[in-house]
Please model this.
Amino acid sequence: MLMAQPQVSAGHVYAVMTSLWNFVTSLDEGPGLADQLARLRDIGRRVNTAQPDEMI
Model:
């Protein structure tokens, strides 16, 4: 356990808890990020399949 170490201060515990909290809250953004990547991939496919005369 982290607090069992004699050299651990409250700052260390706070840093670990903050890092864990940031990680957990970033998991909430996963589905939105996956959706945005799918949209960008779809747009990229549409742009790459366009003929040169269709680009105007």
Summary: The mean pLDDT is 84.
